[in-house]
Amino acid sequence: MNETIRRDRSIKSLNREKLGEEALFAFDEAKRSLVVCASSKVSMTSTEKCYPPLTVVDQLQLHLFVFDESFRTLQAQGNTINLAPWYTQAETTILHAAFVYGNEEIVLVDSTAQARIFSFVTLQFRYDFPHSHIISPPTIY
Length: 141
Known about the structure:
Blueprint: H1 2-6, H2 16-19, E1 22-28, E2 33-45, E3 54-67, E4 74-76, E5 81-82, E6 94-99, E7 105-110, E8 115-119, E9 124-125
Antiparallel strand pairs: 1-2, 2-3, 3-4, 3-5, 6-7, 7-8, 8-9
């Protein structure tokens, strides 16, 4: 692994300016998939002459990449997925990301300690059931 890193020949370079300062990576070796969950602040100038002329907006995006069979090329799959509609609080950040084994899904754990599972098939999060429907583990005496 160290020798591969020292060769300085990357398969794909990811642009930090596009991804943002904070990025999480998840890799599924069986499906040869790499997900980058990136959060960044984007500056937008207002078209109207009002104060303030500059607005900073948080963006939270998923980028899906797939390696070929020999792991020599890495291609982007589909468009960047904007997660903003599901995360309404600007202070919410994604802390952990991991693939769900055997599925085309990823679990994201945010700073509010909430875990959500996002499907790359339906391009949405799974439906969350109310807590009353959660089955608690059996009590051991």
